[in-house]
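Lab manual, section 2.4: Encoding a predicted structure.

Procedure: take the sequence of the chain (169 residues), apply the prediction step described in section 2.3, and record the output as structure tokens. A sample record is shown.
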Amino acid sequence: MRLLTVRKTPLPSCAAWSLLELLVVLAIMVLLAVTTGPKLHASWRLQQLHDERQRLVQSLRFARLTSLQTNTKVSLCWAPACGTSNGLLVYRDDNGDGQWQASETSIASWQMPAGLRLKFNRPAQISFNNSGNTAQTGTLVLCANGVASGLSMVLSSNGRVRLAEASCA
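Recorded output:
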């Protein structure tokens, strides 16, 4: 019978970082976070603006297309008078008075996320007639808190939308 022999070898020395090296690496990481953090946040807010602008443009195009298909007046409203505090309501204006009543058909709604605001250089409603045209031409500007420039949608009288950038001042 053979005995098991164990050879004793010294343990290799562990390679580790010193406390000073760890502090230097942490300081570099903090500097990187401080310098790139605001830029990352601004780019995140700008991406959110792009996404919400696309949703708003889809709502405008949907309202125009619905007015053409149903041969009725379709309106978008974002005032508290329409029952929307932070967003917009798309409805079919059955009686043609340009005001939303609870008896009229609500087609769609768009709820704006917190921190975004919508400016329009006209009254708080856009109406499309049965041929898809609108009398409320102008520029809608979507702005976010903490971002200097916003994204705009220029609405022409024939209901077409052109995208651009605008100032939120």
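Check your result against the sample. The chain has a mean pLDDT of 82.
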